[in-house]
Automatic annotation (TrEMBL):
<feature type="transmembrane region" description="Helical">
    <location>
        <begin position="127"/>
        <end position="152"/>
    </location>
</feature>
<keyword id="KW-0812">Transmembrane</keyword>
<keyword id="KW-0472">Membrane</keyword>
<dbReference type="Pfam" id="PF19723">
    <property type="entry name" value="DUF6216"/>
</dbReference>
<keyword id="KW-1133">Transmembrane helix</keyword>
<dbReference type="InterPro" id="IPR046188">
    <property type="entry name" value="DUF6216"/>
</dbReference>
<protein>
    <submittedName>
        <fullName>Uncharacterized protein</fullName>
    </submittedName>
</protein>
<feature type="transmembrane region" description="Helical">
    <location>
        <begin position="235"/>
        <end position="252"/>
    </location>
</feature>
<feature type="transmembrane region" description="Helical">
    <location>
        <begin position="18"/>
        <end position="36"/>
    </location>
</feature>
Length: 285
């Protein structure tokens, strides 16, 4: 193994260690942020930290008050709600029991349920329409994902001459681009075909462009340019693919919220209607 290879492996290990530390830091920050977002407060986290630091602190008269706050935060975390008092918490639990409501759907709608009135907040029509339009746009962009994925996997860069078709090129070959990599009826140029002076029909690719491609296999500036372009293409494709997937994920999440809101509203209406009907029947007996 040469010196350059050893240095390369050392550099890779160094970068991997840095990457692992960054991932660890992201996880450490991400978990408490998710907890705070779900509970709507950081009190219980700070309480646990203070308890770890001051293990032997004496109990005070505010213990009951602290336990009340912790109880509310546990409730908010489990049910994804934003209750601010034990009264709201107890009212919510009695409401669930009274009408035998589906707590899973109630949890899914999150903070859209007003804890004071126990009524679902309705989405504005414009918001709903914009989310639907966003999702349709996202589904259309799915068609571009196979292309972007092929860009990520390819060790070639996609280029185009004026008045010619697109083609893949690297240090070893140039090949006409076809959607979804259809291999039929495509032209291919390699260093071997250049040496043997095998010429492609002028109608398919001009001789001038063929010479430029052949020259690119040996010219050091062209080789460096192609290598640099392949890396840029990969990074750009990874970024765009990630961005599109995030858009699709966000759209799907928002559509799920709309759907859950509708299902939950319907479920509450039916359960209350059933409860009142049963109570009416029992009163007539």
């Amino acid at each position: 193994m040469g010196v350059q290879q050893v240095d390369l492996l050392s550099s890779i290990n160094e970068y991997l260690n840095i990457f692992n530390k960054i991932i660890g830091l992201v996880i450490v920050l991400f978990v408490p942020c998710c907890f705070i977002k779900r509970t709507g407060s950081s009190f219980s986290l700070l309480h646990k930290i203070s308890f770890l630091i001051l293990k032997n602190f004496k109990k005070t008269k505010i213990d009951d008050f602290i336990n009340e706050i912790l109880d509310i935060e546990r409730f908010n975390f489990l049910y994804n709600k934003n209750a601010i008092s034990l009264e709201q918490k107890n009212k919510f639990e009695n409401w669930i029991r009274k009408y035998s409501l589906d707590f899973r759907l109630i949890t899914k709608v999150g903070k859209l349920l007003d804890m004071e009135s126990l009524k679902l907040k309705s989405h504005k029509k414009k918001y709903a329409l914009s989310i639907i339009a966003f999702l349709l746009f996202s589904l259309i962009t799915l068609a571009s994902l196979p292309i972007l994925i092929s860009f990520i996997n390819k060790d070639s860069v996609l280029l185009k001459f004026e008045n010619s078709s697109w083609f893949w090129i690297n240090q070893y070959e140039a090949k006409q681009y076809k959607f979804l990599d259809q291999e039929k009826n495509i032209w291919v140029i390699t260093p071997e075909t250049c040496q043997k002076n095998i010429v492609i029909s002028e109608d398919i690719l001009s001789q001038e462009y063929q010479k430029i491609i052949c020259n690119a296999f040996t010219d050091q500036d062209d080789i460096r340019y192609i290598s640099k372009s392949i890396k840029s293409q990969k990074y750009s494709s990874i970024f765009l693919t990630t961005f599109l997937l995030l858009i699709i994920s966000f759209s799907y999440k928002e559509m799920s919220k709309l759907d859950n809101n509708f299902k939950c509203r319907k479920m509450i209406f039916q359960k209350i209607k059933k409860y009142r009907k049963n109570r009416k029947l029992s009163s007539h007996r």
